[in-house]
Amino acid sequence: MHKGVRLPITCPVCNADKEHLLHLFFDCRFAENCWQSVDLKYDMREAYSVSDCLLHESAIAKYEDIVSICLVLWGIWFWRNKKVWQNQWMNHAIPMEITFKVYKEWKTARKSSVDTRAMSVNGASNLKRWQPLVSGELKLNVDASFFPGHESFSVGMVLRDQEGAFVGGNVLRYSGQQL
Ligand SMILES: [Zn+2]
What is the domain partition of the chain in residue ranges? Predict the structure, then answer.
C-alpha cells in the first residue's frame, strides 16, 4: 500500500481489522489464542516497536519461553499463509499442536545427527568413512532400487579410479520382488 499497490489490507484470519504486524501476531483473536495455548501473553498495545519488545523479552526470558515465542510467531505466520494461499483453516488449538510437533521432530532429528557426529568423532561408530585409494586400485559403488508391487528391481554401479575419475558404469535389471 505504501508503494501504491492496491491490495486487500484486511486481516485474512479474522477479517475484522487491518493486517499489520501488531494485529496479526498479537491482537488478532487467532494470535491471542495461540499465545494462550502456551501460557504466554504479551500486551503490545503501548509498544513502540514489536521487534524491539520481542528482542528485549528474549534477552530476559527462560529458554523454554524463547522457544515458545519463536514457535508461536512462526506458527501464526505459517497458518496465516495456509489460509491466504491454500484457503485452509482450522481451530487455533490444532495449528499450535502441529507447530510444536514439528519442533519436537526437528529437535529429535537434530539430536540424532549430533549423536552420530559425536560417535564418529569418538570412534565408537561403525560408520565406514571414505578412504583414498592406493594408486592402481579401482572403486566400485553399487546401489539398488526396489519399488513395492513391481516385478523387477534395478542395480546401478559406477567404477572410479584413485583420482575419483569415472572409469565405467552399468545398470542391470533383474526379475524379482522385495521380500
Ligand atoms: Zn485478525
Answer: 21-122, 139-175
* Ligand 1 centroid – CA 77 distance (Å): 12
Measured in Å, residue 70 CA sits from the centre of ligand 1 at 19
Residues 125-165: tens digit of each pLDDT: 556 666 778 888 999 999 988 877 888 888 999 999 888 88
Give the C-alpha separation, 178 to 66, whole Å. Answer: 47
Output the CA 30–ligand 1 centroid distance in Å: 7
Are residues 76 and 34 in contact, defined by beta-carbon separation less than 8 angstroms? yes
pTM of the model: 0.58
Say whether pLDDT at 171 is over 80: yes
Question: Does 118 have pLDDT greater than 70?
Answer: no
Q: Which residues, 6 or more positions from 142, have their beta carbon under 8 angstroms from its beta carbon?
A: 155, 156, 157
Residues facing 100 on adjacent strands: none
Grid cell of 142 as nine digits:
553399487
Radius of gyration of the chain (CA): 27
Distance, CA of 12 to CA of 30 (rounded, Å): 11
